[in-house]
Amino acid sequence: MKRSTTMALALTVTTGLALTACGGEKPAPGSGSGSTADAFTPVKIGEGYTTKGGNINVLMSSDFQTLDPGNSNYVQTANVGQLYYRTLTMAKETAGQPPTIVPDLATDLGTPSADGLTWTYTLKKRLKFEDGTPITSKDIKYGVERTYARDVYTQAPQELNSALADDGYKGPYTGGDFKAIDTPDDSTVVFHLKQPFAEFPALVSRSNTAPVPQAKDSKLDYTAHPVSSGPYKIESYDRGRSMKLVRNEQWDPATDPNRPALPDTFTFTLSTAQATISQQLIADSDPTAITLDSNGGLQASDAAKLNEPKIKERTAAGLLGCTDVLDFNTETIKDPQVRKAIALSIDRNAIQLQYGGARFGKVAQSYINPAQRGYVEQHTDLDPGGKAKLDEAKKLLEGKDFPKTLVYGYADTNTRYKNVGTVLQQDLKALGIDVQLRPIPAANYYTVLASDQMPDIARSGWCGGADSGSVRTTIDPNVGPSVDGKTYGFSNIPRYYDPKISGEMYQLRGANGSSEELGKKWATLFDQAMQSYPLVPLVRTFTNSVVGSKVRNAQVGYFFGAIDLSIVGVER
Fold first, then answer.
1. Of the residues 115, 287, 333, 345, which has the fewest C-beta atoms closer than 10 A?
2. Might you name a Gene Ontology BP term for this protein (predicted)?
């Protein structure tokens, strides 16, 4: 999984041949579809390019929420993170398809014990940090330990932690022995689990297992210069303005078949308005430019330009494993019937238009989707076509005491999300509810949603199934319980907690069975949870991302929702 920050993302996998460019050392750009009939076919640009050198200029409307692998649940950080950190395993992307879990720092996908309660990993040889210091098993363990300091790292990924037998560990800064991981020697890492977990190799692809040298840990300041274990390192970083990555001379390509590391440098501009990004990419004013912004930074008014031949041949595209939703704060909108009424009153077709219309995705009926293992049909009273059911909504509110004013929060760098709020204002006015719009700085967006400043309604996105293809990777983080099972989970934005359903989810975390069998149980519990409407699925989008005319190997990552930085190259 990964949390999407400034993304409007989607998934409905359709079959079809990928349209790619010619092969060879300097292939011509690929060409894509301009019709809605085949608009969901993955399109790669300049596939097969292998020449090293040059610079990729990444245009972004806002800074990364963090660059610290131990404090990140964000797809943008995961995308750029591929360049400067490595993990035990890796989710390797292919346009239009769920990622494949492959070894990264480890020699293989791990060895489980007979009872499934331990997993053992052996590190590859010749692994070094950017300063030449060898990477050892203790650096992997320390990277995981940091993510337990929730008082410091409020957005630390927790799926791995919830599976480990941590015995109440609170991180490396408060003392105590972390017994969930053993490091019998410098190349061996042994994880101890609470219960068997069949998809454990996917969990250790998360950024928790990025190695961190304890001597270089500067806590929250570590985000300014995380020590590189990957092919690039940070040369300069001016927060909110720019960043430059250069080659890490200590990276050994013989240990890393997953990252071709083609460009010499990556430069990032971190405060360019999305409308400007869209204009620059369409005009090809910088032939080396790409963006990680939502839908390639494209504005709705730019959609028609994608049909122009010179732009179409520079447009990478792909259907994603991600979904946008509206989260209801269940602590302020407490009555499930009120939440259902609000959900039914929303014209999701109008919201789809804010994402660019049918060309840019489909109205979603669920947070999970049929492409994820263990999917079972979901049941809600939402109209499958996205239309509002205003009469039903009004009936549900008859005799109810419901809030007459609600606050909708949105990331302030994207007018699309503000426009979603305008749709909500119009729809909920018919119920007698006044919706107030609250812009939230994009760089702090999910931190605010996790705090006591959480608004009544907020848009969020989740790239589920990305780690393993299982429905659990969407359900557990978004509506599942905390690590101890006593309250809602840390990334559970709607703060959903039902003693019975959440309790069964907690028990299911340790159940035995195949991914398919366990997935069906998770999906069934999610269907039950959705009967109280903690959230409303919005759009599974198809991302179109225009790239500069010299950019090669451009593909839209299945759960990054943007150009996959790990394989991109540039013609010189």
1. 115
2. peptide transport
